[in-house]
Design brief:
Blueprint (H helix, E strand, L loop, with lengths): L4 H7 L13 H11 L11 E6 L2 H10 L4 H4 L3 E7 L4 H15 L7 H22 L5 H13 L11 H25 L3 E5 L4 H8 L6 E9 L23
Antiparallel strand pairs: 1-2, 2-4, 3-4
Helix pairs in contact: 1-8, 2-8, 3-9, 5-6
């Protein structure tokens, strides 16, 4: 029986060693669909998910992950990739969606206003934030916004490095959706940062603008796959009620 959200979160552990037992790629694919439903900045969905099932590619990716057990023993791998370079394409997809949703002959004034606000957001604001040339425009925008911010609240994350962080935050949210979904059906995962990301990009044939967010090992946990009891600092140390 599928676990509840709380049960899945409690069950999920970073599994370092997996049993030599196959898992259903279609179930993993469904969990990746759940990942695609995660919240994302401006609904730009600047992510891609590479579901590795080929034994040959699994071996290559494991080597690029320094043959750590979580990669070497995984039955399947998922590579979460950020695609900040696709912001124009994803903004246009949102505009097309808005045009389709609001394509009515007698649209109410309030809905017409909502459509215009949303469309302007993707046509004007998103390009203002995301368009850059070698990071120079982003730096100029950053300092201009800092000056405006002396007088009123304003969005300040406009540098190239800031927008990379935004994309990676969204990808991290999607990855968590995926791992909790896997835990809900009794499958195990391990998110890995330890890899030669350039080699991984080459193996997958990714373009220059793509970045590896994380690689996730997938399988069924071995008895020795969990390296120890779960440790978290006391909740009281991280929880602040304001």
């Amino acid at each position: 029986m599928e676990k509840t959200v709380s049960q899945a979160i409690a069950y999920r552990r970073s599994t370092r060693i997996y049993k030599d037992e196959a898992i259903d790629p279609e179930k993993v694919k469904q969990c990746l669909y759940n990942a695609s439903l995660a919240p994302t900045s401006s609904n730009l969905q600047l992510w891609e998910f590479y579901h590795i099932t080929s034994k040959e590619v699994l071996s290559k990716i494991a080597s690029a992950c320094f043959n750590q057990n979580a990669a070497k023993t995984a039955q399947q791998l998922v590579v979460v990739v950020t695609r900040k370079d696709l912001w124009r394409q994803r903004a246009n997809a949102n505009i097309e969606f808005l045009n389709k949703v609001f394509d009515k002959p007698d649209l109410e004034p309030r809905l017409e206003k909502r459509k215009k606000q949303a469309t302007d957001y993707y046509k004007k604001l998103i390009p203002t934030i995301y368009f850059d040339v070698f990071g120079i425009l982003g730096l100029i925008k950053y300092w201009c916004f800092q000056i405006v911010g002396l007088f009123r609240p304003i969005y300040r994350q406009t540098r190239l490095s800031d927008m990379r962080i935004v994309a990676h935050k969204s990808a991290g949210l999607a990855a968590e959706n995926f791992m909790v979904s896997m835990a809900a059906i009794g499958y195990d995962t391990c998110p890995m940062e330890g890899s030669d990301t350039l080699r991984v990009k080459q193996i997958l044939g990714l373009p220059r603008g793509a970045e590896i967010n994380m690689i996730i090992g997938c399988g069924i946990r071995d008895d020795n796959g969990i390296y120890g009891p779960r440790f978290r600092v006391p909740f009281e140390n991280v929880y602040y009620k304001v």
